[in-house]
Write a structure and sequence with these properties.
Layout: E1 15-19, H1 27-39, E2 43-45, H2 61-73, E3 77-82, H3 89-92, H4 98-104, E4 108-110, H5 115-125, E5 129-131, H6 143-154, E6 161-164, E7 168-169, E8 172-181, H7 182-187, E9 200-207, H8 211-223, H9 226-229, E10 232-239, H10 250-261, E11 265-266, E12 280-282, E13 285-289, E14 294-297
Parallel strand pairs: 1-2, 1-3, 3-4, 4-5, 8-9, 9-10, 10-11
Antiparallel strand pairs: 5-12, 6-14, 7-11, 8-13, 13-14
């Protein structure tokens, strides 16, 4: 794995590129997101074919990979913000040039299916990436989310940045942040972009997975040694993770697994498919303070130019 490198900070008034490496994009949501970024003082750039469709994807694999590559190479672009998740990122990582992304050193932002790109980038390009809000909401990103993301990408956030959760248990631990959508983290196992949880604080969230499927995925993480290699766990939202006819809840499943893991943990972090979905720089050092139900981000994810 390459030595960890931080991307260059977004400059005030700089250019943000919107990319669609996964699911097909809704035009109204895209317009709202672009307007929000412009109102925040940035220029927005995107390719004319971003709204292309191929089945459930934002165009075929070649289009999506070429879009990401060309905008990573574009000297005017300072940051890459994904339009949405859905599905598609695992289909294109084999077409991407890790050396190009490492040299470009541009912040890449997204979550959900974009978990794959963030894990790939960490493994192969050695770059910190940003798990955070995209442009998939019809009303645009919430001001709190976009404000926090702008501060993080420009390197202006207060450090340590405190993320308060709910319940927690265990001691205070430090490690680098990794993780993302639980289903995509599990899907990375056995691939060239497999999650690296060694000495890490593992952040997990998901949406629309029934409790028994969450149970099964956590079992797979344990069987693969991922939980054993982590130093702590931070849980975000597990929204719409319900049984159709009631019964066991996802919280019961998560509590059972957290207790069985023996790891310090914090639940209820603003991470993933919920509101607010705050940005998290994956790869930076952080401290999980389980007793206080908090996670402290200890360093910035970018370097100023």
């Amino acid at each position: 794995m390459p030595r960890l490198r931080k991307p260059r900070a977004l400059t005030p008034g700089g250019t943000v590129a919107v990319v669609a490496p996964a699911g097909a994009v809704d035009a109204a949501a895209l317009a709202a997101g672009e307007a929000a970024w412009r109102a925040a003082g940035f220029r927005v750039k995107r390719r004319d074919d971003l709204l292309a469709r191929h089945r459930y994807l934002a165009g075929d694999d070649a289009r999506r990979a070429d879009e990401l590559t060309s905008l990573a190479r574009d000297p005017q672009v300072e940051a890459l913000v994904c339009a949405r998740g859905g599905y598609g990122s695992p289909r294109i990582v084999g077409r991407l040039d890790a050396a190009l992304f490492r040299e470009a050193r541009k912040p890449l932002v997204g979550y959900s299916d974009i978990t794959t790109l963030l894990l790939w980038q960490r493994r192969h390009a050695g770059l910190i990436g940003f798990h955070g809000p995209m442009l998939e909401r019809s009303a645009g990103p919430e001001p709190e989310e976009l404000g926090a993301l702008v501060e993080m990408l420009t390197g202006n956030e207060a450090i340590p940045a405190v993320r308060r959760g709910g319940a927690g248990r265990g001691r205070r631990v430090e490690g680098r942040l990794t993780g993302g959508s639980l289903s995509l983290v599990v899907a990375s196992l056995g691939t060239p972009w497999e999650v690296d949880a060694r000495g890490a604080i593992l952040l997990l969230e998901d949406r629309g997975e029934r409790p028994y499927r969450v149970d099964r995925m956590l079992q797979q993480l344990r069987d693969a040694g991922v939980l054993e290699r982590a130093v702590g766990v931070g849980l975000g939202a597990f929204s719409e993770c319900v049984e159709p006819a009631g019964g066991v809840t996802v919280d019961e499943v998560l509590d059972e697994w957290l207790d069985a893991s023996g790891l310090p943990w914090v639940k209820g972090l603003c991470f993933g498919h919920a509101s607010p979905n705050l940005p998290w720089p994956l790869g930076v050092r952080a401290a999980l303070d389980a007793g206080r139900g908090e996670l402290h981000i200890l360093e910035r994810g970018v370097v100023r130019r």
